[in-house]
Design goal:
Elements (H helix, E strand, L loop, with lengths): L1 H6 L13 H11 L4 H20 L8 E4 L5 H6 L4 E5 L5 H11 L2 H4 L6 H13 L2 E4 L2 H9 L7 E3 L24 E5 L8 H8 L5 E5 L15 E5 L3 H10 L2 E4 L9 H7 L4 E4 L13 E4 L4 H9 L6 H11 L9 H12 L22
Parallel strand pairs: 1-2, 2-3, 3-4, 5-6, 5-8, 6-7, 8-9, 9-10
Length: 363
């Protein structure tokens, strides 16, 4: 939705319909549930309700229908003659579940795993899709591994709005004598927060957790050098970045975490994992990519973070905006997506920054 909002904002809508009040009610009610697992399942139900309502809208002349995971099965079935585009904003559900079970028990990972019924639903959507749009090589590989026809997979890295994410400007107050780390992510197992809390325990650093708390149980017994900032606006996050010495995101499964690019544009070296699709955005930027779930490697990397001087901060920020990286903006992303979804079957999939064909994955 962020891509549609930011990338297509300049394009006037031909028609806009509010299709399901009930789906929104279910989603908002689910957010109030005390059990994280039940709240997540309410969001899955809201997707099904939205899908059914969207499928009932008269779109007889539609050339393209675009849907999101778990929310487009009825829509795709209702429009067999249109070009059906599955926007894979998340990992393949089986890959998502596999990674959670690799690092946590079935009981501890239940709240965040996809239910079997939702897995089957998404796989049906993938079979019906003519195009599977992915944001990273990691997601493309997952799709192919779990049976998606490679000829349908089109990989276009997300755009990133770097406006406001600069090393210059106001910053929050901080302890000046030891490194300050920032992690901008939901406090959840999928984002590797339990491993991060273990890694910073006993280190002479401060860690700021910026993001919503999906499961408060994860924070029980958190070390004293952890600051839980909660959800932050873009401006507030930019101020946190300017006060930090490094950004860390030890995710266990992440399709493409755009905050990596925002942190780099703010001048921060990035520490993330090989399970983060956005790690490919780093290119030659200062940063460290670690094996997902390796607490000892994470602890060692965090313990080596130095205090960041202004010269280095500016150099990292400039490199993040240079043409040598994979970072693009939402407008360019939208144009590349439109090239793909409006292409005739068998035509080139689109253009990259230099005007060449957008890469399809191949065997």
């Amino acid at each position: 939705m962020r891509a549609l909002r930011d990338g297509y904002a300049s394009r006037p809508a031909h028609r806009v319909e509010r299709v399901s009040h009930l789906a929104e009610v279910v989603l908002r009610a689910g957010l109030r549930l005390p059990c994280p697992g039940l709240a997540l399942r309410a969001s899955y139900l809201s997707k099904i309700l939205f899908d059914r309502a969207a499928a009932s809208v008269d779109l007889a002349e539609a050339r393209v229908v675009l849907g999101f995971p778990g929310a487009c099965l009825a829509l795709f079935r209702a429009h067999p003659g249109a070009r059906r585009v599955f926007h894979a904003v998340d990992a393949h559900p089986r890959a998502h579940n596999r990674e959670l079970l690799r690092h946590f028990s079935r009981r501890r990972s239940w709240d965040e795993r996809y239910p079997a019924r939702l897995v089957r639903r998404i796989e049906k959507e993938l079979r019906l899709a003519d195009v599977v749009l992915t944001p990273s090589a990691i997601v493309s590989a997952q799709m192919a591994r779990y049976g998606v026809d490679r000829a349908k997979i089109v990989e276009i890295p997300y755009g990133v709005s770097l406006e406001g994410f600069t090393p210059e400007g106001p910053a929050v107050e901080r302890h000046l004598e030891r490194p300050r780390l920032v992690c901008a992510a939901h406090v959840s197992r999928r984002k590797g927060i339990p491993q991060l809390l273990d890694a910073v325990r006993g280190l002479p650093v401060d860690l700021v957790l910026a993001g919503g708390v999906f499961d408060r149980r994860i924070l029980r017994g958190a070390p004293s050098n952890v600051i839980v900032a909660g959800p932050l606006s873009a401006d507030e996050l930019a101020r946190e970045f300017r006060a930090a010495d490094a950004f860390v995101l030890p995710t266990l499964e992440d399709a493409c975490s755009l905050v990596v690019a925002e942190a780099a544009a703010s001048g921060l070296p990035v520490i993330t994992t090989d399970a983060n699709g956005a790690s490919a955005l780093l290119g030659a930027l200062p940063g460290t990519v670690l094996p997902a779930g390796d607490v000892e490697a994470l602890k060692e990397a965090l313990g080596r973070v130095p205090l960041l001087d202004r010269t280095t901060r500016r150099a990292v920020a400039e490199a993040a905006r240079s043409a040598a990286t994979s970072i693009t903006d939402w407008s360019a992303y939208a144009e590349r997506v439109l090239d793909v979804v409006l292409a005739e079957e068998g035509a080139p999939c689109g253009r990259d920054r230099a005007g060449e064909a957008t890469r399809r994955t191949r065997s």
